[in-house]
Specification:
Strand 15 and strand 16 form a beta hairpin. It contains 15 helices and 21 strands. The protein has three domains: 368 residues, TIM Barrel, CATH 3.20.20; 53 residues, Alpha-Beta Complex (Oligo-1,6-glucosidase, domain 2), CATH 3.90.400.10; 70 residues, Sandwich (Immunoglobulin-like), CATH 2.60.40. The protein is an alpha/beta fold and 535 residues long. It has an eight-stranded parallel β-sheet. The chain has a five-stranded antiparallel β-sheet with strand order 14-15-16-21-18. Helix 6 packs across helix 7. The structure holds beta-D-glucopyranose. The site of beta-D-glucopyranose has 10 residues, from loops. One of its GO terms (biological process) is oligosaccharide catabolic process. It comes from Candidatus Planktophila vernalis.
Length: 535
């Protein structure tokens, strides 16, 4: 039997290089820093690392403002360091996924600089979305940037350019074949250097429609598109159906071309995962049709309440929708754009949810620090660097809290992350959350993750679908068990605030917190905890 491709049920560890490990004492993590900690990464039991951008960049948006996609920013090292990182990862049988940013470049990219010089009507400007002002001097339309403020900026000769994000991130014009040609060159560049796959940033955004038409509620739409702005879900969903710059049919043509490029590397199993936050959820499956990409992120768990009905629906929907295109889902509880799961739903709940999710079919993504149970860093406004914070005059705090550097060792901040001053402060409160101190504590979150990922590999990868168990109660969270069986494992999550009996059979092999007791032939699952039983 042909074995499944490596990515199919891989556990993928997201590294935000600036916050991972600093090898040269400048206060910022770097590629040699990542390389130096690959044994730690391997010890978690993950299959691959996804590196957030490390390309040449003025770093106005954490490196998602790329000035040269085929080189390494000096703050992270150089191309030799990238090659060494890939080689060392491969030596440990870890695959490497690079983060590619096709929706926009940095305004410092040579194309944008050339466009500024060349002036209106030039072919240099056709690589971006440049338009004249309206007759009254206003921008071509009323769209609002996802980071706040207008999504148009005026240049010296009066034209405006479109930027869905920061003004330093001009959107590329994907109707221009030069743009795809350049990106294919970038894909080949990194594949030739050894990477095994790509995370495609804003994968749903490349094609824009109605660029000269106003939206009826631009501010509402911009809010609806942000994970960190709370909004009634019906209002949000209705607004999301009206977005003119995301999830247009044209994006799929691009991914069909890219798929051919990936598949031309016979034997390499190059994969790509789309960051495509689309609505309705069924639309996400289009990105993983057989001739397109391999995975698409499921963002539902980044915002889902710790509630059995909500979680049941998310899991059920994700599995069944993906099945319609013969794909498996992805699961992510945290990433660099959203509050850390331990802060969002609570420490014990975060452990329980992780163990619940690690049993599911598909690929699990773990954001570095999640395995330690890190909460969001508490920051002063003066520390913040996220363009969202800056562009909304501080109204939206932004994503820096999730990006605070990792605590590694010792009793004093910055806990071995750097010999210098970390780019964001690491709280002294994290003393018991360092890798070193968690390694010494068998009950730590780190041990839970390591044990769970080992068991997942042993019993669950390739085990097929899940069957929900009758004991699952999709009621109020204070009265809920959610359980499924898969292969030889039964997974039971108790979401309630008190211990609950269940009739799962088999031998207990792991529990996310507390102790599982037996009572009248039944198992008693502790409050806010998940347990796995082996038949
Ligand atoms: C990335 C963000 C980034 C944005 C613009 C996203 O979806 O994950 O970190 O700010 O794209 O590139």
């Amino acid at each position: 039997m042909k074995s499944a491709p490596w990515w199919k049920e891989a556990t993928i560890y997201q590294i935000y290089p600036r916050s991972f490990f600093d090898s040269n004492g400048d206060g910022e993590g770097d590629l040699p820093g990542v390389t130096s900690q690959l044994d730690y990464v391997k010890s978690l039991g993950v299959d691959a690392i996804w590196l957030s951008p490390f390309y040449t960049s003025p770093n106005k948006d954490g490196g998602y403002d790329v000035a040269n996609p085929r080189d390494v920013d000096p703050r992270f090292g150089n191309l030799e360091d990238a090659k060494e990182l890939i080689a060392q990862a491969h030596k440990r049988n870890l695959r490497v996924i690079a983060d590619i940013v096709p929706n926009h470049f940095s305004d410092q990219h040579e194309w944008f600089q050339a466009a500024l010089k060349a002036g209106r009507g030039s072919k240099e400007r056709e690589r971006f979305h440049f338009y004249d002002a309206n007759e009254d001097g206003t921008p071509p339309n009323n769209w609002i940037s996802l980071f706040g403020g207008p999504s148009w900026t005026q240049v010296a000769d009066g034209q405006f350019y479109l930027h869905l994000f920061d003004s330093s991130q001009p959107d590329l014009n994907w109707e221009n074949p030069e743009v795809n040609a350049d990106f294919e060159k970038t894909l080949r560049f990194w594949i030739d250097l050894g990477v095994d796959g790509f995370r495609i940033d804003v994968a749903h955004g490349l094609i824009k429609e109605d660029v000269l038409t106003n939206h009826s509620d631009p501010q509402g739409l911009s809010n609806a598109l942000r994970l960190d702005v709370a909004m009634d879900s019906e209002v949000r969903n209705a607004l999301l159906l009206t977005v003119p710059y995301f999830d247009r049919q044209g994006v799929h043509e691009i991914y069909r071309k890219w798929r051919k490029l990936f598949d031309s590397y016979v034997g390499r199993e190059i994969m790509a995962v789309a960051e495509a936050w689309v609505h309705p959820p069924v639309n996400a499956t289009r990105y993983v049709r057989a001739d397109e990409l391999h995975q698409v992120f499921n963002f539902d768990l980044l915002t889902a309440e710790f509630d059995s009905k909500v979680l049941f629906d998310v899991v059920e929907r994700s599995i069944s929708l993906n099945a319609t295109v013969n794909a498996l889902p992805t699961w992510a509880l945290s990433n660099h754009d959203s509050p850390r799961v331990a802060s969002r739903i609570g420490e014990e709940q975060a452990r329980a949810l992780a163990l619940f999710v690690f049993g599911l079919p598909g690929s699990a993504y773990v954001f570095a620090g999640q395995e330690l149970g890190l909460p969001d860093g508490q920051l002063q406004d003066s520390d913040r660097q996220d363009p969202t914070f800056l562009r909304t005059n501080g109204q939206i705090k932004g994503r820096d809290g999730a990006r605070v550097p990792l605590p590694w060792s010792g009793n004093t901040t910055p806990f071995g992350f750097s010999t210098g001053k970390p780019w964001l402060p690491i709280s002294q409160c994290w003393r018991d959350l360092t890798v070193e101190s968690e390694l010494a504590d068998p009950k730590s979150s780190l041990h839970l993750y390591r044990n769970a990922l080992e068991l997942r590999k042993e019993f669950l990868v390739g085990a097929g679908g899940i069957a929900w168990l009758e004991s699952s109660q999709h009621g109020a969270k204070n009265d809920s068990l959610l359980s499924y069986s898969r292969g030889s494992i039964t997974v039971v999550m108790n979401l309630s605030d008190s211990a609950k009996e269940c009739d799962a059979s088999g031998k207990l092999i792991i529990v996310s917190g507390g102790t599982v007791d037996a009572r009248d032939g039944k198992k008693v699952i502790p409050a806010r905890s998940t347990a796995w039983f082996l038949a």
